Amino acid sequence: MTKRHVIFAPLLVLLTLGLTIGCSQKTAPAKVSGTVTYKGAPVTGGNLAFHTDSGVYSAALRTDGTFEASDLPIGDMTVTVDTESLNPNVKKETYVGQSSGGPGGTSSKYGKGGSGPPPVTKGPPAGVKGAGKQEKSPAGEDSPQGDPGHYVKIPRAYADKTKSTLKVNLKEGVQQITLELKD
Fold it and tell me: Of these four, 2, 7, 101, 175, which has the most CB atoms within 10 Å of its CB?
């Protein structure tokens, strides 16, 4: 071994070790649970979104107003609450197959011109990082499986990231929060 190898070999080992340790240290994510209330009563269905610098993380509200999410980043974030998806007075959009080919397309059991059912999108909307993992059924302990909850009309500002006054600072580990919505 040359003198050069004797000097650079230990430096290379230390550099590699330093990079490995430095790059592998990752702050543990936050796990959060809590309750959302409006005028002192639980918000019995809907979705929460935690807006961070690294993306949006969602959690479903159970019928008792509680939620749980894990694997959220730590730090400051804005929280939005949306219940309008449960509003019985809002017309739900329906999708029909796309037209294919010439004028009028072709007929199928899925609508004019479609070659099959419309694509089904699973998971959070585009741009939303799945929230945290849902620890329990969003429907709640005493609800039939799949019950999305019950509509509670809340001020629209809570569904808008730029207008919501709900701010949280999540720390590493497990924590519990209460989000009280006001007029």
Answer: 175
